[in-house]
Amino acid sequence: MKAPHIKVTPPGPKAKAIVERDHHYTSQSYGRVYPLVVKEGRGCVVEDVDGNLFLDFMAGIAVANTGHCHPQVVKAIEEQARKFLHICGSDFYYEPMAELAAKLSALAPGQGAKRVFFTNSGTETVEAAIKLARYHTKRSHIIAFHGAFHGRSLGSLSLTASRASHRAHFGPLLPGVHHLPYGFCQRCPYHLTYGSCAIECVGALEKTLFRHEVAPQEVAAIFVEPIQGEGGYVVPPPEYLPMLQDLCRRHGILLVADEIQSGFGRTGKMFACEHWGVEPDILCAAKGIASGMPLGAMIAREEISSWKRSTHGSTFGGNPVACAAALATIAVIEDGLVKNAAEVGSYLMGKLTGLKAPHAAIGDVRGLGLMIGVEFARLDDGHAPDAQLRDQVMQKCFENGLLLLSCGESTLRFCPPLIVTRAEADKAVEIFDAVLSELGA
What we know:
Elements: H1 13-25, E1 38-42, E2 45-48, E3 53-56, H2 59-62, H3 71-81, H4 95-107, E4 114-119, H5 122-137, E5 141-145, H6 154-159, H7 164-167, E6 177-180, H8 200-212, E7 219-224, H9 240-251, E8 254-258, E9 282-285, E10 296-301, H10 320-353, E11 362-368, E12 371-376, H11 387-399, E13 402-403, E14 405-407, E15 411-414, H12 422-438
Parallel strand pairs: 3-13, 5-6, 5-7, 7-8, 8-9
Antiparallel strand pairs: 1-2, 2-3, 4-10, 9-10, 11-12, 12-15, 14-15
Helix pairs in contact: 3-10, 4-10, 10-12
């Protein structure tokens, strides 16, 4: 499958018919971004129902890390599906779950022993982390950050602060949750300059939050994305995460790293927090863990995982087919994809950065590995985020066979499968460049 190849301007007639039927029956809550109707996928290529071939640089929101339908992952799914589909890992035992738990314990940053709780998704993983943090510390308060996305179920939604619309009309949310600005140097909320700011985005916790809102002795955990995902693919300053870790250690607060979007090789390390030598007390994983099968995992230091039998559980979490897919996925990722993400990611970053000169509307290019964001800004003195242009670019790229996805106020994310080649990166940048020129950006 060679992409892109557009036979008919999308959405074609078959796609339109499916979209119309979908609109009659599915919930209006889904935030569909453009009318892509998928027939199948292979590697970095997605085919729609009208025969159009798209180059996929969003990977189902950074999920298809091994590419669509990687043969080793498909084989593992097929083999396990012929044995048994379900038995409930909360009540019984099976080898794929035990093997995957051991593998994740070894992979997660930190030398000590760890315990793994399996879920079906990222939001369930965060919910489990909230429960464990409160249970272990006997404290109730939690700190998260503006721009964060931790999920949409009630507890995780209480931590989410990427868009007010995510939270509107769902209150009251979880009590005892506090938010502070994230370390976003490009648009510093404190109006300071990196290099002379003393990392105020961390200092504000002790200077302001702990003085005026909550004593540190009442805080169970700080939840942080090493790189913010839905908040705009924001990479914090290098001191940020180590300083947060130090603050947590001094006050007996658990550091919870939400690696749901940044994990499993996406940033050129198995987990993003490894870039800064950070070892979280709890690590939340999902998305790329199983190449698209529904699975999440909360990985906690053994001394933190102090809850008792039947304190928490899940009917489907750690499903045997999903665990088999995860084991195959991790094997593929370890076999060169982390390195490829670092190398092709650096190459892609350079190519996209090179577009800033001819396209003044590009305000910033940032990221690590194959987790790259291109932010659009208005061409005025304020350089305000330009969401309208961002959305026009995304739609035009779709029509020209390139799949991208928005995040933050005005950012497009480039997060292709980790198998992506330099040639595919060149083609994506070529299409992106042409669309920007067409729109006069």
